[in-house]
Amino acid sequence: MDHMKENSIVSTLPVIPIKRSVLFPGVMLPITVGRSRSVAALDAALKTEEKTVVVVAQRRSDQEEPGVDDLFTIGTKAVIKQTVRTPEGLVQALLQGLERVVLLKVEQSEPFLKVRTRQVSASFDSGTEIDALRRAILDKIDDLPELLQSPGIREVVQALHAERDSTALGYRVASLLNLTVEAEQALLEATTQDDLLRRLYAALAHEVQVLQLRNKIANDAQAEIGKSQREYVLRQQLKAIQQELGEGDTDNSELAHLKDQIEHADLPEPVRKEANRELARLDKTPAASPEHQVIRNYLELVLELPWKKASADQLDLTRVRQVLDEDHYGIQEVKERIVEHLAVLKLNPSAKAPILCLVGPPGVGKTSLGQSIARAMGRTFERMSLGGVHDESELRGHRRTYIGAMPGRLIQAMRRAGVNNPVLMLDEVDKLGRDFRGDPAAALLEVLDPAQNHTFRDNYLDLPFDLSQVFFVTTANALHPIPQPLLDRMEIIRLPGYSEHEKLEIAVRYLWPRRLKEAGLTDQQVYLEQGTLKDIIGRYTREAGVRQLEQMLGRVTRKVALKLAEKGLEAAPVTISREKLSDWLGTERFLPEEARKALPVGVATGLAWTETGGDVLYIETSLLPGGSGLTLTGQLGDVMQESAQAARSYLWSHAEKLGIDVVRFKRNGIHIHVPSGAIPKDGPSAGITMATALASLYLGLPVHQDMAMTGEISLSGLVLPIGGIKEKVLAARRAGITRVIVPKANQKDLQEVPEEVRAEMTFVLVETIDDVLPAALRGWEEESSAPRLLEMVCG
Q1: Which residue out of 728, 744, 748, 785 is catalytically annotated?
Q2: Is position 685 annotated as part of the catalytic site?
Q3: What is the rounded CA–CA span in Å between residue 521 and residue 422?
Q4: 790 has pLDDT over 50
Q5: DSSP three-state, residue 532
Q6: Of 98, 184, 338, 408, whose CA is between 20 and 30 Å from 212?
Q7: What is the full DSSP assignment across 721-789?
Q8: Taken in order 301, 304, 310, 313, is the CA torsion positive or negative?
Q9: Nearest C-alpha neighbor of 6 from the set 124, 167, 123, 121
Q10: Which value, to the nearest 10 degrees, does the dihedral of the CA atoms of residues 649, 650, 651, 655 take?
Q11: 666-670, 699-703, 752-756: which has the minimum mean pLDDT?
């Protein structure tokens, strides 16, 4: 290895500090000098023959008047090649680095910095390692022309390949890279060629990697910009084509159309303000953006909603009654409630609409009643089924931030209605679901509250919409699944089951003519005897409503249509007789509800309420000699079991008064059974029936076979009121029972029983069990001290 001789040349030179850069030996560096000390140093150097200065990098770039301690200790001796002075007092100079020097001592600080320096010796290494580093660096710089893409870079790279001095090559390559001052100073201070080239290769590799990544990002961005520019050009061409075809600017025409609609729409001021704001957003949003369609759909919804549009109410009360009677038979309570509301509207047009809840078994006409209400009032009818709804967002809508967001069902129903005061039916409100997505019933609390629904906010619309004029009608089969806060907001109207007479009238007036029309028949082609219709009601259907009855009538009309189609339209009219009914509808599905002809001792007839109406219930008791306790069978619920225990306890405690031998209680067990065993039963209304059956068993007296009873019994013998009187009485009537024992407190409920049924039956009103037993048991010898029997014949 050939080393340079030790060079100990010492010289005193002016110092020019520079920021954010390092001057390397053999490299040209243009600088702009503005600081007064640097300008003085430059002027002093220009007055000398060598025109040399020392260029040193500052450690910190924010130092405006750096001292020697603020400079790196190794700098570069440079010769001033050219200077140019500007009108602003600046000096632009071109410097060429000569050699490295180390700062030794400050000789002068003012008016410029002058320092004694000594030349730094350099070593010239050789060998395979230096050659390998040199070639690696040359391979790396071959990528620079493509990465830098600056003019003249290829010529510079070619010149670097021609450089034989490895140290000069390193300095020249370092000047091309965008390195930090610290990194460049480290290269300048390298003591050997090996150290210099290794440091340079690491910095060069990092710089090439950064340049490659920068170019990739730039190319991706350029490709996206190119795609956008291409789309822009194509859209401009499309506009030109549309203008040539006379179609005009579609986007601008749509915006103008929306703006015109907003200006002429009858909108509340807050809604108009929000619509104009969204229209301004739409104008700034590119048509290709997904947000453009979202805003447009929102504006179309706002414009389609009936903010102030209302339909005129039909306030002719006579006409309203006529329409309601045309569509439905009976249900006077509901009809009167509708007429009452219209009477209020007639006197006070700003009155809030009621919120009705129609509760009753399936098939009694709850849903169709909503349509009749709308027709009678002259309003638009909209129906919304809530059965199975388990997501609150289905009612309130989704926020527009979600993809595919839509308004809730309530706002959609208002848009379809086209007016802000329709009759809106919320069907099956008792079948709302609930899960992790929310509780729809809780969302209805605001909707069905007249104090809140005038400012209902849908999540999608996010504007207050007035629902206070909407006539809400909800329907349910039962009340217990409905949350109590929601139940409190509604006016409950019960629709009980129909009597056989009411079903007959409904079939004659509505169901049979409708089925004939649907089958393409006329009343001249088919004749249905009234007795046949009664048999269809009693033997082929068992329901509180008339849905099964309509299905059976539809089956008859289809078979008649088939018969006439096969024989020709000129065939003789078809008569549906009772004798041939099985040929039309098949075997009878239900046996007629008939009371037992004779009741043995220990059996009493009770009445039960079911969701499909009422039913007759028999309580059967039996003594178990040598047994003990009370055995209950027939799938009895807790309340019914407690009623049996209370009835037995009362009889045991009053055995002497009732003439029952107490020994029979002690030496015999009791078994109470209630058919049918497969059907669960519960409730307190069988209390007096159980007491009567047990009294019959202990006394050996049978119960009247034409008498049924219902009522709750207390341990002190009181007969308490119960519910479902109408359904229970109708069930007794269907079974041929003519006398019914009911609690005296339920006397008012007998008015709900159809008048023709009340005329045929006798009702015994009782207050205690002592009133029940004389009326129910045959052979009861009434003593002077026996309680008074209350009996009323309703006719």
Answers
A1: 728
A2: yes
A3: 35
A4: no
A5: helix
A6: 184
A7: --S-HHHHHHHHHHTT--EEEEEGGGGGGGGGS-HHHHTT-EEEEESBHHHHHHHHBTT----TTSPPP
A8: negative
A9: 121
A10: 100
A11: 752-756
Extract long-range pairs of 771-774: CB within 8 Å, 24+ residues apart.
Answer: 771/719, 772/688, 772/691, 772/692, 772/709, 772/711, 772/719, 772/741, 773/658, 773/691, 773/692, 773/695
Please identify which of the residues 372, 499, 685, 696 carries the catalytic annotation.
685
Residue 350 CA: distances (Å) to CA of 320, 347, 468, 469, 471: 20, 9, 10, 9, 13
Q: In the structure, how many helices (H) and strands (E) does the chain have?
A: 29, 25
* Res 127: pLDDT: 74
Q: How far is CA 687 from CA 188, 639, 718, in A?
A: 110, 10, 10
**Backbone phi and psi for residue 112, each to the nearest 5 degrees, phi listed first:** -145, 165
pLDDT of the residue at 362 = 83
Contact 305, 482 (CB under 8 A): no
Q: Which helix H or strand E contains 302, and what residues bound it? A: helix 290-304
User: Catalytic: 728?
Assistant: yes
Kindly report the number of other CB atoms within 10 A of residue 167's CB atom: 20
Q: Is 112 helix (H, G, I), strand (E, B) or coil?
A: coil
Q: What is the pLDDT of residues 676-686, one digit of tens each?
A: 777 888 889 99
| Structure token digits, residue 457 | 């906010």
Nearest Cα residue to 46 out of 80, 16, 91: 80
Look over the chain and give the mean of its residue pLDDT values, rounded to a whole number.
83
Q: Chain centroid to CA 118: how far?
A: 82
List residues bridging with 444 in a β-sheet. Answer: none
Helix locations, 568-711, DSSP H: 581-585, 638-653, 655-658, 663-667, 687-699
* pLDDT tens sequence across 290-330: 888 888 888 888 888 898 888 887 778 888 888 888 888 87
Q: Please provide the DSSP assignment of 217-238 as one string.
A: HHHHHHHHHHHHHHHHHHHHHH
